[in-house]
Amino acid sequence: MRIATEGSVEDLEELKRRLAELKTEHRDLDDVIARLIERAPFDQIQLQRLKKRKLSLKDQMSRLESQILPDIIA
User: Fold this and answer.
1) Mean pLDDT of 32-57
2) Structural domain contains residue 34
């Protein structure tokens, strides 16, 4: 990934594209976790790893969203 220059339209589009990718992966993980839980017995370690990955994605999404829509100090 190239270094972003502040305010560039291309950079903003890249951030939005990456955010969309992360949201898709996050949603897919929801489905995988739900299917895993439906199967009994399920691998608890695998479930923990999937949930940890999902949380990591959520953190990345939050950071990207804050870059796209920076806080406005009132």
Assistant:
1) 95
2) yes
